[in-house]
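call fold(seq) -> tokens
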Amino acid sequence: MTRTKKNVLLIVVDQWRGDTLGKLGHPTVKTPNIDALANEGVTFAKHYTQAVPCGPGRASMLTGLYMMTHRAVQNTIPLDARHTNIAKEVRKAGYEPALVGYTTTTPDPRETAPQDPRFKVLGADMEGWKPVGSWGLKMEAYFAWVKAKGFPVPKIPTNIWLPKGQDESDIGATAKPSTIPAHLSDTSFFTDRALEYLKGTEGKPWFLHLGYYRPHPPFIAPEPYNSMYAPEDCPPPIRAESVDAEAAQHPMLEFYLKSIERKKFFEHGQGLGADMTEKEVLQMRATYYGLMSEVDAHVGQVCDYLKQTGQWDNTLVILTSDHGEQLGDHHLLGKLGYFDQSFHIPMIVRDPSESANLTRGKIVRHFTETVDTMPTILEWMGLPIPRTCDGESLLPFIHSAEAPANWRTEVHYEFDFRNIYYSKPEDYLGLDMDECALSVIQNDRYKYVHFAALPPLLFDLEKDPGQLRNVAEDPAYVKPLLEMAQKMLNWRLKHADRTLTGYAATPEGLTSRL
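ret:
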């Protein structure tokens, strides 16, 4: 297979928990097409994003940088224009990387006029991509597509995600279908755009980022996905016996328990997410799984098209997500804080090469990170990996039955909780903007959470896998607390910005160790 015939399909779903894969034994969710992809590829069971929410997580995935380096620390916070990304790198090889979906990227204000409309939304499209299916800054392209299909879009377009035939009781988790039918859902829109693009490639090598909005809220599914799962078949939430008991773990956690509103997850929702009963949580999960099954059906459509057109054996397929979802665990909704449910994400890599035949269907249980995505793609394409990348290629796991030597034994991720337009933790906690940061290091036994200006956390994952008991102040844990803090410091020292540190001036002139 020559380089000129290589295609890349990077599928990025939004808010998909890493534990919610049939291949990994989830008891409820049905994703036969994604399971089939996993059986042809390698599934990375302990794969984590480096940051939440969408903007920071996608910045790490697409630049190969930890958040401490790229510093796009929240939605709406700009990404420094000096950073390269996967799109810019593959352009060097003659590809025109196409974007279906979005990247939630705010541009560098030093190079962008203050009145640019991209500064009035959560994020726009990252530089380097050719948008072929972006839904616009405010989903306007999607709503225009719906209208063009003959469906009456209401004055408030997002009301298409209200329950069909709603009444005043429909303000939260519901088994009712959405007003918008499945063939006009946003999932259908993105698949339509992707297939339209692929049909126009005319046999040329291509690189497609295919993004799906689901299972991101609002948590309501079109028919028949709304009734695909029964709430009683869904796993119950992992959480303390009460919201107050959960909040006692840490002041930052207390803030989010007291501030996350249901209206961000259900159209016209009322009240706090922390107050959801277990019955409501189980219904929400049933709907969430339904949205996953809808995405799965569409992933199957795209894969079938590649097979029917003879492109399947020339295409690297990666399926992953930007971040996870709390889904009622720890009485929380959304993606935030330091719990695994927000940071653990799916990662499936299907390499068509003959050298990957040895590992098809394999599950890797070593720690891997979203910063590994860019190096993996570049190595597969035969392109150089920038020295700035913090990640490592996953191809050694795919081309060998053995794990590469000296692979990481911990996973790392970060969260920045400064004030932004729709959330004000600084005010509640009495902190300055640059004090609102945490960093996590986690291995198979311990999880350590370091805060810039708040008390640390330590969890013994062997005794407390649900992470309900902080042992940071327990004298019996002084040694592991210190060891994990030292490991985190070593990690930060090793991965400090390396853009120019491989160069040096000498009496003979410039040298490089790249």
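The domain at 3-162+172-408 is CATH 3.40.720.10 (Alkaline Phosphatase, subunit A).
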